[in-house]
Design goal:
The complex is a heterodimer of chains A (208) and B (152). Chain A is 27% helix and 4% strand. With 208 residues, chain A is mainly α. Chain A has one domain. A two-stranded antiparallel sheet of chain A has the order 1-2. Chain A has a two-stranded antiparallel sheet with strand order 3-4. Chain B has five helices and five strands; from the N terminus they run E-E-H-E-E-E-H-H-H-H. In chain B, a hairpin with a 2-residue loop joins strand 3 and strand 4. In chain B, helix 2 packs across helix 3 and helix 3 packs across helix 4. The model of chain B has no long low-confidence stretch (mean pLDDT 98). Classes of the chains: A mainly alpha (208), B alpha+beta (152). At the A-B interface, strand 4 of A face strand 4, helix 3 and helix 4 of B.
Amino acid sequence: MQAPLLHAILAGAGLCLAGTALTSAQTTRQAAPAASLRSAESFSTIANQRDRSVALFGEIGTVLQHPRCMNCHPATECPRQADAKRLHQPLVVRGKDGHGAPGLECATCHGKQNFDPARIPGDGHWALAPASMAWEGKSLGQICEQLKDPNRNGSRDLAAIVKHVTSDTLVLWAWNPGPGRVPAPGSNAQFGALMQAWVDTGAACPAS
Amino acid sequence: MVSLKVNGRTHSVDVDDDTPLLWAIRDNLGLTGTKFGCGVAQCGACTVFMDGKPLRSCVTPVSAVGDAEITTIEAISGKEVDAVQAAWTARDVPQCGYCQSGQVMSAVALLMENKKPSDGDIDLAMNGNLCRCATYVRIRAAIHDAARTLEG
Ligand code: FES
Ligand code: FES
């Protein structure tokens, strides 16, 4: 297979703010092994319930702030990609509904499943998170408050949040990202248990 | 064997499920208007329509096509196509031509959704289509011309 063409027509787009090196979407580097997650039970040694809840969210944050999740929760109009969180190549934007611009929607390249020969990730509803759920540049405390806020989280209560992160196929994709991308830490089951334990302990947020 | 609906006909194609659609179109069906440039969704040369929407055929396994209708550069039709073809010819857009079937597919797809694209809309739609001959300026002008034609 030929080397991917590089291009340099990003200049002037102005929608993605941060400058980044122009690099190909395909990487031949092998991804580092996935990190592990602490179990929800291991937090039971923290006697104070609020402190336990905050500590649980700290562990949850290692998933939320992982490139597999963060890359499509951008603060700008443009997603990022790869473990290095570089700007998506080619330049693509949120568009009116998170599925891209007319003529270059996410589904132009991203199918219903990963296509490993070309290392193109996929899911049935590949899309950017809504702008109200931008995580990029936010502290974990801010992300936590945002996650709980029905005005920003798609009108979800805490139970609906847990259901979302344990059943939405695009969330689950973070643990099955295909070759060349590190999966989110631990397993989705562990992550779901941490989220449930956080909810059960009062869903407290870190101060920052 | 995989069944593919391409340009209004159903074909039985003897390829593995994970064969990229581009390979089936070019090598098995002999429709060579659609080009291979990169194979990794970076250049747009392989753009076809799937149920009327643009698709990079190099990163779409034939198994993902199912019953969908594939249309290639050889068979696209309609008023947007006529307007793009006329504008492309009048402006002499292609240089070597290699990228141009992909450019035309994306330009038609844009105009089907946006009748009066701004420069910014054009850039966002056409960003995934590279041209080694750098015909970008003529492409943009020709899309504006085509939009004006469609306006009537
Ligand atoms: S050959 Fe498909 S995008 Fe380049
Ligand atoms: S006209 Fe030569 S690559 Fe575009």
